């Protein structure tokens, strides 16, 4: 196995020597100023490596030697708090003075404390009833930001021949704009009902929950003529776990503990472009 170590800041040579010893690797090769690849690393040393990396705010990942980005055919991403930095529904709720109440439900759902995602989404959307739909545009224009490294990661994935899927328990208003802006290939999200320019507090059609996310990954892979093992799935909340389990490589991005524990790789500090250094 290779062990890839990444840092937000330039990685000092002191880290190189210590990490090679901790991982019982043969040598460290520099990927760039912020990352190294340690060859012949021993995954049995994961606990020691993790403790050191956590202390020094480094991200680590054991990766099969020779595995490359072009071996995959799809990168599937969650939207809220993954491709973008915000939870859109929380910011929409801020325009009707209910951000704290809605955010508390969102947080509990993402941690996996509310098992029924459909119920949690229905409860949150109902609180938005009567809000002027112009709030959606304001959230997009004034508050929505891409996560660090998002555009670089997408460009690298496309250059390697991968297709892109944005699948979200959020809303089509935002996924449609991001699809056009970023040149994404596939999107799936929930549709807010709007009548006479006001949110009705209802979602139209099937709710995109954990099962639907997993199904969307499988169906997109089938459309592309590839196995799900050739997909990479990136997410942060419990609603992403089933989708991540379907993929050949799963990445927990600044994720809840339950997601970090289940994922192949966790990025707690670096941006989404950390994916390019892994492979």
Task: Please tell me about this protein's structure.
The structure is a single chain. The chain has 279 residues and is of the alpha/beta class. It has a domain of 66 residues: Alpha-Beta Plaits. Helices cover 42% and strands 23% of the residues. The chain is built from 13 helices and eleven strands. It has a seven-stranded mixed sheet with strand order 8-7-6-5-9-10-11, with helices on both faces. It has a four-stranded antiparallel sheet with strand order 2-3-1-4. Strand 9, helix 11 and strand 10 form a beta-alpha-beta unit. The longest helix has 15 residues. It is elongated. The mean pLDDT is 96. Pathway: Amino-acid biosynthesis; L-serine biosynthesis; L-serine from 3-phospho-D-glycerate: step 3/3. GO terms for molecular function: L-phosphoserine phosphatase activity; magnesium ion binding. Its EC number is 3.1.3.3. Belongs to the HAD-like hydrolase superfamily. SerB family.
Brief write-up:
The protein has 13 helices and eleven strands. By secondary structure, it is of the alpha/beta class. The mean pLDDT is 96.
Spatial order of the strands forming the largest sheet: 8-7-6-5-9-10-11
Order of helix and strand elements from N to C terminus: EHEEHEEHHHHHHEHEEHEHEHEH
- Mass-distribution shape: elongated
CATH C-level class of the domain at 1-66 is: Alpha Beta
How large is the share of residues in beta strands?
Answer: 15-25%
> How is the biggest beta sheet arranged?
7 strands, mixed
Helix percentage range: 40-55%
Q: What is the SS-derived class?
A: alpha/beta
CATH architecture of the domain at 1-66: 2-Layer Sandwich
**CATH T-level fold name of the domain at 1-66:** Alpha-Beta Plaits
Q: Give the low-confidence spans.
A: none
Q: Compute the average pLDDT.
A: 96
Q: What is the helix tally? A: 13
Number of strands: 11
N-C termini distance: 12 Å
Rg is: 20 Å
